[in-house]
Amino acid sequence: MEELIGFVTGNKNRQKLLALLGSKHQLDAVKLAKNMHIAQPSVKRIVDELIEKELVEQECDIYKLTDLGESLERRVQSI
Question: Which residues does UniProt call coiled coil (predicted)?
């Protein structure tokens, strides 16, 4: 878990995306990009990294936190 916390907190956009999905529960890439004020390809890259770490899952074009992602998001918010 500590390694994942370091992975997320080491990049402000990863942390922001995790927090955004934690508060909104599910969003598509367009809304993530708009809320984060970054380009859609950047959002896709970050989401892919978080999917690889099993923190985010994708259903069609919608992204949401996994159970592990929710747990990690709560821990990061408390730091």
Answer: none
